[in-house]
Design the sequence.
């Protein structure tokens, strides 16, 4: 019995994935666990292992295809096996599609073979009628939960109405996630295909013939993640009123604790708690009394979080990622450290679930290890603040009339002036400095 | 076929010969002495002056074309200039005999004809009349220019000549102060108050139009005759030959008199062939025609041989002699007549003509025979003028022409229509949009019976005006008021209300129209208002255009919509365009009835609404119920615009199923442009065009009963104009729309509407507007029609496949995208 390998759904919000590499071709024999194909969401990449040993009987997608989750990618089975029934059954099983009419079947088979040609939904929720979109906007229906019943998987009015009837609505903020911060360039801000396709690659200028041997540059198509970062960062800077406050604190207490943990931590069963973990810990505690910074700014609504979902900016080979430590305020320093490390590892390995890359209420980013003393971090919208952590430098301070040198660690808080004013932001920073300088007291709380 | 005329087999096979009379060829031979007895010195000089004016006018245009300069005045004229240098004597000779009651329709080389007829009318009108005409025309705007900027020395006739030359030239140069506001241009200039009717850029197109003008005079007892000018090349065109035959048909003298009750005179029309030997470059005698001499044509059309004659068109007095004899014949009721006026075009067909088809020797020989030079010699020989006097005439003309040209090219005095400042300049004249109950309220309509005694009126009185009786039972076909009755009622009413109304087409009278709309109307309407035409679609529609130009109203019928192709030019270029080309001066109250067939295969079953809707200037309607047929026909007949009135043979016999009170009695109007909701619904809109309404109703029933889908059905009724508001409202409600019609789907009206609806309702649409039309095939035989014309199940399948899959529905027709792409790829 042949097996259909589908495009897995990597997280609730993922609608489709791009096949980055097909590792097999029709007729190849594979062992269980062999990689069949690699694919990526806009944030992560994955390898799909063979669920069982067998022969590749059909490939239904091609490299570069944007395949909706749960759609068929290839068919494994015994050589010579009749798979026509499987080819006919192109629709995913869980979809309550109308029974395929006789007259249509022939057409569908044709469509399945050169699947690369079939138009597919590309981003967000896939194809949706203008009317259904309008109704969703009006009612707040959660299109991510819609079951498309229109032709070619189009969401039509009745599908949205079904969501409304079932109470499946969603806030404007969450909706932002499936429209992917695409800014409409059409008339009255309509999002048109142009917006979804992204900026066209710059046209290559024909180099003079004599210089042909050594091109002056090469044009490389942007990976998806770069596009997402670009969009998100640009939106952040172009739509918010951001400003940054710089300060530093005496890190003597932190360094002592760090030295102590390094020496005795393992014996006590503690993780390798870093300075950054301590900063995260301090932030997760101090933030509780500064709700304007532990919030989302949603145009006409402020959403204040009762927990601290701490975003941790991570530099990965694929680019910047910000995994979230959910309810960081509920974790001990040790737990927080373990959680953060796990997330960072997943992010760097490119295996992180997209669900863990969302939902932060505040973000901490650290460039201190790279020797940066202070900088102006860019807020991850719709959050209202981000804390940048700088390197440690020696500074002089006056102590009872004497110049005393101490390790100073830089802190840079960028906040959205639309959401809060300078004084409350400064107060948060001041309290954070005080907490970090007397970290022992904080731990006792 | 009238029963009064028995077709006797014995007579039909009788032996004998057809006899022809000799056709005179250039028989004019009056001496100068004889001529001097007929014409005064003034007449001679005026004839000379008129020829010289035409020559100078054409020379000026030629210079402007070739050198961009005339007499030191620079100008570039991008428009056409089909000149007639050499043909002046023919034009002036013809016009000499005509007065303002005589209408002259020009060829497409007509500057000379316009000027000659204009000059002749100016001579014949008295000063007061003349001034009033100029003052009234386009609110005096043309007159104001020549009055202000030229000195006519207080002489109204001189002023009028300036007016004529300026109005024509400004028209040629596309100026707003031209006779038709610059919208007609070189080949369409005309001036009705001088009896100077529209000319035509389509070769030969004037012939059926002139015929219509003659029909107007004939059927309404108007004075004067009609001249149909054309070139010898145009005699190869079907519409010209159709017009020759139509004008000659027997019934005019044999049946229209109705035993002395009415006139039995022939058609008062003179077909005048300006035979310049070439149709552009094709030599008619010796190359493209076989008649040897165009006058021979007359012998083919009726026993009087159309009184055909060939005359020397280089001698204005020979032409005057012939035309006045023909005019006399026509006024005596002996028309039609035909003249073959031999002339020559020394100038090229157009300035780009390099005369590759004729030798310089030939041109020189005709130059030597120049009619103006020859006439000048005659004047001098007859001591009617001196060289000096003639030189003076020429000088005056040149000065006048230079002055007029300066005025006509002056952008301030003679501006072009400013479509930036007046964006509606042309929009406002595409249709006249008037409601005129009678085109001539001064007269009583000529009818044979009082209306209530008309047998058909009596018959309809006894009919039930709904499809079902009070108890809900279907009314029997014989008793039921149907679409034919709906069409008939406003038509018979209009016959009584408007004395100018005429109706004709093939088999209209005794047969009652091929589909019985005119059944039992013969008893009430006299022949000259209601007759069988020959099978001549061009002449049927073309004559209606001429009839309307003169101020009459016509209903013409083409039997099958497929025959629109046979009257293509008349419908698309003439009927559609003259209101706007005349700057709104002309009205075009024509209702052209066409019927969409069924059961008759590929050439008798086509819905060609899209062809008509595509052409600007036509109104197009397609009713599908008796009430709508009546209401729309009433509006068509009350209006002043050309209407192509589509009917469907599938539903002539259908009764009123929608209006509870039945088809309204008496005068009942449905304004054009308003679609009608025939069935209310909330889930999907179905917009239908024509007879497909009833199949859409079937589909709606199935959708309701089987799938719980409530369909709203809107019957378009009108195609041009069309008010989208009702459809937009419906789509806002349902979000889904199917457009259904019997026309082949590609480029149909449904396609156009679907595209407009997509634009207008984009945000409200739950799926693309989907068109369900006939296949892009030939119409097959009746037994196979269900695979060709849209059926109820096609509508349901299209909804299921393209807009909203219906749970449990199994489509039987292929409406998939793949199929669509494949068909388009194959041109199907």
Sequence:
């Amino acid at each position: 019995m042949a097996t259909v390998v589908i495009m897995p759904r990597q997280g609730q919000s993922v609608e489709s994935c791009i096949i980055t590499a097909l590792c097999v071709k029709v007729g190849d024999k594979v062992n269980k666990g062999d990689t069949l194909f690699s694919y990526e969401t806009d944030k992560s990449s994955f390898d799909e292992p063979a669920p069982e040993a067998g022969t590749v009987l059909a490939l239904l997608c091609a490299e570069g295809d944007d395949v909706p989750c749960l759609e068929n990618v290839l068919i494994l089975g015994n050589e010579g096996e009749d798979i026509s029934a499987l080819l006919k059954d192109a629709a995913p099983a869980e979809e309550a599609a109308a029974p395929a009419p006789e007259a249509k079947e022939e057409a569908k088979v044709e469509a399945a073979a050169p699947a690369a040609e079939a138009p597919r939904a590309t981003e967000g929720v896939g194809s949706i009628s203008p009317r259904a979109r309008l109704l969703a906007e009006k009612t707040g229906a959660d299109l991510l939960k819609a079951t498309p019943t229109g032709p070619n998987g189009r969401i039509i009015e009745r599908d949205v109405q079904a969501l409304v009837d079932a109470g499946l609505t969603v806030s404007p903020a969450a909706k932002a996630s499936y429209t992917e911060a695409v800014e409409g360039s059409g008339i009255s801000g309509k999002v048109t295909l142009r917006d979804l396709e992204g900026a066209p690659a710059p046209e290559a200028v024909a180099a003079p013939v004599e210089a042909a041997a050594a091109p002056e540059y090469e044009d490389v198509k942007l990976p998806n993640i770069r596009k997402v970062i670009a969009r998100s960062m640009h939106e952040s800077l172009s739509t918010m009123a951001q400003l940054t406050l710089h300060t530093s604190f005496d890190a003597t207490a932190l360094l002592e604790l760090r030295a102590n943990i390094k020496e005795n931590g393992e014996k006590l069963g503690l993780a390798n708690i870093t300075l950054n973990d301590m900063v995260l810990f301090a932030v997760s505690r101090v933030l509780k009394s500064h709700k304007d910074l532990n919030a989302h700014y949603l145009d006409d609504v402020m959403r204040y979080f009762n927990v601290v979902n701490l975003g941790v900016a991570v530099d990965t080979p694929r680019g910047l990622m910000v995994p979230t430590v959910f309810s960081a305020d509920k974790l001990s320093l040790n737990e927080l450290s373990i959680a953060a490390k796990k997330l960072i590892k997943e992010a760097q390995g490119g295996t992180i679930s997209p669900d863990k890359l969302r939902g932060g209420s505040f973000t901490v980013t650290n460039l201190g290890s790279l020797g940066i003393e202070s900088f102006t971090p860019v807020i991850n919208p719709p959050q209202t603040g981000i804390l940048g952590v700088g390197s440690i430098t020696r500074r002089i301070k006056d102590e009872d009339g004497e110049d005393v040198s101490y390790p100073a660690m830089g802190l840079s808080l960028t906040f959205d002036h639309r959401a809060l004013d300078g004084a409350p932001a400064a107060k948060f920073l001041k309290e954070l400095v005080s907490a970090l300088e007397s970290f022992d007291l904080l731990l006792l709380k | 076929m009238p029963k009064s005329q028995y077709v006797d087999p014995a007579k039909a096979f009788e032996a004998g010969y057809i006899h022809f009379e000799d056709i005179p060829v250039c028989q004019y031979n009056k001496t100068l002495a004889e001529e001097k007895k007929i014409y005064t010195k003034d007449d001679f000089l005026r004839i000379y002056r008129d020829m010289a004016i035409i020559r100078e006018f054409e020379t000026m245009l030629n210079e402007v074309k070739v050198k961009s300069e005339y007499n030191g005045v620079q100008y570039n004229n991008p428009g056409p200039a089909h000149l007639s240098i050499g043909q002046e004597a023919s034009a002036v000779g013809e016009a000499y005999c005509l007065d303002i009651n005589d209408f002259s329709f020009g060829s497409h080389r007509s500057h000379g004809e316009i000027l000659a007829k204009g000059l002749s009318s100016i001579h014949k009108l008295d000063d007061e009349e003349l001034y009033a005409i100029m003052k009234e025309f386009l609110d005096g705007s043309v007159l104001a220019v020549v009055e202000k900027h030229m000195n006519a020395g207080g002489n109204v006739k001189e002023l009028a000549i300036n007016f004529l030359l300026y109005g024509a030239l400004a028209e040629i140069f596309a100026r707003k102060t031209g006779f038709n506001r610059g919208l007609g241009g070189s080949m369409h200039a005309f001036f009705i108050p001088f009896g100077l009717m529209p000319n035509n850029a389509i070769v030969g197109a004037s012939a059926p139009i002139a015929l219509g003008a003659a029909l107007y005079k004939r059927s309404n007892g108007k004075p004067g005759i009609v001249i149909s000018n054309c070139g010898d090349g145009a005699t190869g065109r079907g519409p010209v030959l159709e017009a020759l035959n139509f004008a000659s048909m027997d019934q005019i003298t044999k049946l229209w008199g109705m035993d002395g009750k009415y006139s039995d005179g022939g058609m008062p029309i003179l077909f005048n062939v300006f035979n310049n030997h070439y149709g552009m470059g094709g030599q008619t005698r010796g190359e493209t025609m076989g008649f040897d001499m165009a006058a021979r044509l007359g012998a083919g059309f009726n026993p009087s041989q159309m009184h055909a004659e060939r005359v020397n068109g280089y001698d204005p007095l020979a032409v005057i002699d012939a035309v006045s004899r023909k005019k006399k014949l026509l006024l005596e009721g002996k028309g039609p007549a035909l003249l073959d006026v031999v002339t020559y075009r020394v100038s090229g067909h157009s300035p780009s003509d390099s005369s590759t088809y004729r030798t310089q020797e030939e041109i020189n020989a005709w130059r030597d025979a120049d009619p103006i030079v020859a006439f000048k010699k005659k004047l001098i020989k007859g001591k009617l003028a001196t060289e000096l006097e003639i030189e003076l005439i020429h000088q005056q003309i040149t000065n006048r022409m230079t002055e007029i040209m300066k005025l006509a090219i002056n952008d301030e005095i003679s501006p072009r229509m400013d479509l930036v400042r007046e964006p509606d300049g042309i929009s406002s004249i595409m249709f006249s949009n008037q409601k005129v109950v009678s085109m001539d309220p001064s007269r009583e309509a000529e009818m044979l019976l009082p209306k209530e005694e008309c047998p058909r009126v009596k018959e309809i009185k006894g009919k039930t005006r709904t499809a079902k009786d009070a108890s809900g039972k279907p009314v029997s076909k014989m008793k039921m008021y149907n679409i034919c009755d709906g069409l008939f009622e406003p038509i018979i009413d209009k016959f009584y209300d408007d004395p100018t109304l005429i109706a004709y087409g093939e088999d209209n009278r005794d047969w009652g129209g091929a589909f019985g709309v005119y059944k039992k109307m013969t008893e009430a309407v006299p022949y000259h208002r209601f007759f069988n035409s020959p099978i001549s679609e061009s002449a049927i529609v073309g004559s209606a255009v001429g009839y309307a130009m003169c101020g009459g109203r016509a209903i013409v019928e083409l039997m099958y919509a497929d025959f629109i192709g046979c009257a293509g030019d008349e419908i698309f270029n003439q009927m559609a365009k003259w209101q706007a080309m005349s700057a709104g001066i002309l009205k075009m109250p024509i209702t052209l009835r066409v019927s969409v067939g069924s059961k008759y295969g590929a050439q008798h079953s086509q819905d060609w609404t899209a062809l008509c809707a595509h052409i600007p200037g036509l109104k197009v309607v397609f009713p599908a119920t008796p009430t709508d047929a009546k209401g729309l026909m009433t509006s068509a007949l009350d209006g002043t615009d050309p209407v192509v009135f589509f009917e469907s043979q599938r539903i002539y016999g259908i009764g009123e199923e929608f209006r509870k009170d039945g088809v309204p009695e008496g005068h009942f109007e449905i304004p054009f442009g308003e679609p009608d909701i025939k069935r209310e619904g909330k889930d999907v809109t179905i917009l239908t065009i024509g007879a497909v309404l009833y199949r859409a109703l079937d589909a709606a029933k199935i959708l309701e009963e089987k799938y719980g889908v409530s369909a709203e059905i809107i019957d378009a009724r009108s195609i041009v104009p069309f008010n989208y508001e009702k459809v937009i409202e419906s789509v806002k409600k349902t979000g889904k729309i199917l457009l259904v019609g019997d026309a082949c789907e590609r480029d149909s009206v449904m396609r156009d509407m679907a595209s407009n609806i997509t634009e207008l309702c984009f945000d409200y649409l739950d799926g693309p507007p989907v068109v369900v039309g006939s296949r892009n095939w030939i119409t097959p035989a009746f037994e196979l029609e269900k695979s060709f014309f849209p059926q109820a199940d096609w509508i349901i399948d299209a909804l299921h496949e393209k807009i909203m899959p219906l749970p449990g529905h199994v489509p039987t027709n292929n409406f998939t995208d793949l199929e669509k792409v494949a068909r388009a790829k194959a041109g199907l």
In short: The longest helix of chain A spans residues 252-268. The interface with chain B takes residues 97-99, 101-104, 107, 110-111, 129-132, 134, 149-152, 154, 156-158 of chain A (CB under 8 Å). The longest strand of chain A covers residues 385-399.
